[in-house]
Amino acid sequence: MSWRTDYKDTDELRFFTELTQVPRPSGHLDRIRAFLMDFAESNGLEHEADDAGNLLIRRKGTGRIIVLQGHMDIVATCSSGMEFDFENVPLDTYIEDGWMHARGTTLGGDDGGGLALMMCALTDPALEGIDLECLFTADEEVGLMGALGMKEGWLSGRVLINLDSEDIREITIGSAGSADVEAVFPFTPEEDSNKAYRVEISGLRGGHSAGEIDRDRGNAILIVAEFLRRMRGVRIASFKGGSASNVIPMSASALFTAPDGCSVDRIFEEYSAGCVNLLEEPDYVFTLRPSECTESWNQEDSSAYLDCIVSCPNGVFERDEYGVKTSSNLGIADQGRIVAKPRSSDMAALRKLISNQSELFRSRGATVEDPVAFPAWKESDDSELVKLASDTYRDYFGCEPRVVVTHGGLESSTIKDKHPGMEAISIGPTVLGAHTPDEKIDLRTLTEAKGYLFELIHRLSE
C-alpha cells in the first residue's frame, strides 16, 4: 500500500497553520475553545464543553464508536532574552525543508498535530458514516487537569486513539505515571548591607523532561545553586529559574549577597571554567556582575533553600527494556518555591520518589501538599487494539512499527480510569524539541499520520 507524503495544500497543513494563530498557553484556553466551537458549528457537528474546560465534538455515524483525543494547550517557552506574549500574540511560523518552526518560541506541535488530525477526521468525506468522538482536553501540560476533571462516563466509545505521540515510527501502548511535588518556603527578607551580586545562566538547550532527561542536558537551576553553595555566608535576595515542571530549565538567575572576605569573583571563575568542561552545551552564557539589594533571606534560610535544590533527586534513576523507567526533573525555582516532577512506569517507585522529595523539603521547613500522582498505564500484549494498530501500520507503511512505552505522561491513563473497559494507544506525527524554542514538526509525517489514522479508523469500524 502506498501513502501520501506531499503535505502541501492539505487539510492537515491548513488546520495546523490555523491553530498556530490561536494563542493557547496552558491556563488561557478561551480562544482555542471558541475557535474549535466555531469549527464544529460551521461543519454541523455536535459539541459539548464540561466544567473542566474540555470540549467534545461528535461526528455521528454507525457501528463502533471511536474516540480520538488530544490536548488544546501548549507549553509557552521562548528563547533566552526574548519576551513573547503567548496569551495574545499568534506564533510567527515558517517552513524549511518540510519542517514547520516558530521563530524564537515553542511551536505547539505538541499537541497541535493531534488537534489538526482530529479536525481532519471530523470533516473529511473519507470517514463519512463512521461514529467519532473527538475529545479536546484542557491544560494537559500543567498536570493533566482537563483529563482529571472530566466526568466519568462522558465518552460512549471504548476504543481510544490518543494523538499526542511525537514519532511517526512508534505506536505507544503505555506511559509513565507522574506528579508535581511543590514546596513553599516561608522565608522572610531581612535587612542586608553586604555586597550584592547577580549570577545568571541562559542559553541551555533544555528539553522535555520525559524525552530529554537522559541526554545530559544542563539544569540551569542546579548550576546556579551549586555555585552559590560554594561560598560561606551567602544570603539570597531572589532566585528564579525554569518555566514549567516538565521542562528542563534553560535559564536561571539569583541576586545574592556575600560577606567581606568572600572571594566571589575567584570562585565564579573556577566554577564557570569547570562548567565549560562538564556541560555538553554549545551556546550558553554564564555571567556574574555586581548588583544592589537591601534585603535578603538570612544565612540559615538561604542555606536550607540551596540544600533542597542541590539535594533534590534529579535525573535518571532506573531503566527498563523500553528506556527510562524512573526519573525526576527539578523544573521550577521561584523565590521560596520549588517544583519537581518525578516520573515512573512503576507506581511503587513513583510513590517512593514523591515521598523522598516531600520529606526533604519538609525537613528544611517547607510546606508540601500531598501531590496528585497521575497513574501509569500499559495495554496488555494481547490487546485487540494493539494488534490491529500494528497490523495496519505494517500494511500501510510496509515496515514494522516500534511498539513502545513512553516515559512521558499521556492522558490515556486518566481517561481509561474514568471509562472501564476502554483500550487505548497513542500515535502521532514526528515532533522534535517539544517544550523548547527549537520545537519543529515534520509536515510530511503529519500527512502520513493522517493516512495511517484514517486506515486504522476504517478497520476499527468494520
Report a brief summary of the structure.
With about 450 residues, the protein is an alpha+beta fold.
Tally the structural domains. 2
CATH class of the largest domain: Alpha Beta
The geometry reads as elongated
**Mean pLDDT across all residues, rounded?**
95
Termini separation: 19 Å
CATH topology of the largest domain: Aminopeptidase
- CATH homologous superfamily of the largest domain? Zn peptidases
Query: What is the count of β-strands?
Result: 25
Stretches where pLDDT is under 50 for at least 5 consecutive residues are none
Helical fraction equals 25-40%
Helices, by number, come to: 11
Query: What share of the residues does DSSP label as strand, in percent?
Result: 25-35%
- Largest beta sheet, briefly? 10 strands, antiparallel
Radius of gyration: 23 Å
Question: Which CATH architecture of the largest domain would you pick?
Answer: 3-Layer(aba) Sandwich
Decide which structural class fits the backbone: alpha+beta
